[in-house]
Amino acid sequence: MDTPNPQFVVSSLQNPRIKEVIRLRRRRARDATGLLLVEGYRETLRAVENAHPLQTLFVCPSLYQGENEPDLVRRASEAGVAVVECTESVFCKMAYRERPEGLLAVGDRVGRALDDIELSANPLLVVAESIEKPGNLGSILRSVDAAGADAMLVCDPVTDLNNPNTVRASIGTIFCVPVAQAAAAAALSWLQDRALRIVVASPSAKAEYTDIDMTHGTAIVVGAEQVGLSATWLQASDAVAVRIPMRGRIDSLNVASAATLLLYEAARQRNKRILAEQK
């Protein structure tokens, strides 16, 4: 299947659209325009499946990795996304991956207000404070989605939630998981107003993460590996601190790994409770 109604193939690096895409690699440009970049088949597929607003989809059929790309391009076009075909040289100039897959979209940035987050009857959330690496943010988003949690709150971020590497590391789950950005104090107040149990990860905690009941509404809070969580969380009167035991020589885990362990422990406890109630 060909690209839907291509008017021409962009072959010049001086094309204004191409220059704009390249500028969006920088956070300043993303902040100024309210746009982000989405590169790759799975990432673009999840954006389209979740009706995330995309403006333009740049394609290079000779770089496709499989047979499903034309159908995805058709779906995007039918959803109102402008499709622009490019030569390999132009596409590779825009791409930030070492092995481009021939799909790169420009769309609206991700991030909503706290009050726009809708919770289930028994919510499970992750709060990520001052995470430094976009890859870690993206990996946490993958775990939030995989564990079936409600949402993720990003507090006082050091890196940009809409960094292309966050989108990539999330494998597009950034478009599936409700995400809000807020200051730590505002996020804490929002959680307290909803009577969620606040479980903070801290190496100095006495309780292990498997000892704490997370079967009811829970917010799991993780922070940057080097500095840990701020006093806002550690000194919150209703927060419960937990640690992940370190059996070897290392004193901490990657923050995304820590968040995953806590999420799946919460999911395990909840599943066990459901099974017990069904007997």
Q: Whole-number average pLDDT? A: 94
Assigned CATH superfamily of the largest domain: SPOUT methyltransferase, trefoil knot domain
CATH architecture group name of the largest domain: 3-Layer(aba) Sandwich
Q: Percent of residues in beta strands? A: 15-25%
Q: Could you walk me through the main structural features you see in this protein, from its secondary elements to its overall organization?
A:
It is a single chain. Helices cover 35% and strands 20% of the residues. The chain has 279 residues and is an alpha/beta fold. It folds into two domains: 9-108, Ribosomal protein L30/S12 (60s Ribosomal Protein L30, Chain: A, 2-Layer Sandwich), CATH 3.30.1330; 114-278, 3-Layer(aba) Sandwich (Alpha/beta knot), CATH 3.40.1280. It has a seven-stranded parallel β-sheet with strand order 8-7-6-11-9-12-10, sandwiched between helices. It has a five-stranded mixed β-sheet with strand order 1-4-3-5-2. Strand 7 (151-155), helix 7 (164-169) and strand 8 (179-182) form a beta-alpha-beta unit. The longest helix has 24 residues, at 255-278.
